[in-house]
Amino acid sequence: MKGGVRGDQTPLIKGGRGDQTPLIKGGVRGDQTPLIKGGVRGDQTPLIKGGRGDQTPLIKGGVRGDQTPLIKGGRGDQTPLIKGGVRGDQTPLIKGGRGDQTPLIKGGVRGDQTPLIKGGRGDQTPLIKGGVRGDQTPLIKGGRGDQTPLIKGGVRGDQTPLIKGGRG
Question: What is the rounded CA–CA span in Å between residue 72 and residue 18?
Fold first, then answer.
């Protein structure tokens, strides 16, 4: 948001350093590290309001084992939980869900390893109030192109996050 790009394939929101690193109101410590109101402890580690351990997204929860996202409780490594039990390891469940390694937030699953937030289509594709165009494509309020996180902006080119401006 209101920021240019520093490094190729690097989404920046209000500052940030390191390639392929989306930032939302936070600085980056390590490449490919999305930050939402939190600092990073380890590379490729998304943090939401605190968290410890590499590659470990946290939303209001502590981590029990690396690569283990926890949302309000959870058991087993690599298993994000949001108000739900786990059915199989590496299986995040948010208010229901079918298939291993499949996080769900108010949506059904279309393929394994497919996080859905209020609908979505395609494997390994997180959706936040938007449809998906291409696999492994996080979308926030619209977006086009594979592996391309968008926050209130369109994408021109693959793996190219745009947040209200940016060059690269």
Answer: 30
* Measured CA angle at 35 (ends 29, 37), to 5 deg: 115
Helix (H) / strand (E) element for 59: namely strand 58-59
pLDDT (0 to 100) of residue 1: 37
pLDDT value of position 24: 41
Rounded to an integer, what distance in angstroms lies between the CA atom of residue 92 and that of residue 75? 10
d(CA 113, CA 63): 20
Model confidence, pTM = 0.10
Please state, as a whole number, how many other Cβ atoms lie within 10 Å of the Cβ of residue 17: 15
Task: Give residue limits of the domains in the chain.
Answer: 1-65
Q: What is the pLDDT of residue 46?
A: 43
Distance CA 123, CA 69 (A): 19
Mean pLDDT of the chain: 40
By C-alpha distance, which of 35, 16, 32 is closest to 24? 35
> What pLDDT, on the 0 to 100 scale, is given for residue 107?
39
User: Which residues is 162 bridged to in the sheet?
Assistant: 150
User: Is 154 exposed, middle or buried (CB count within 10 Å of its CB: 0-12, 13-18, 19+)?
Assistant: exposed
Q: Residue 82 in 3-state DSSP?
A: strand
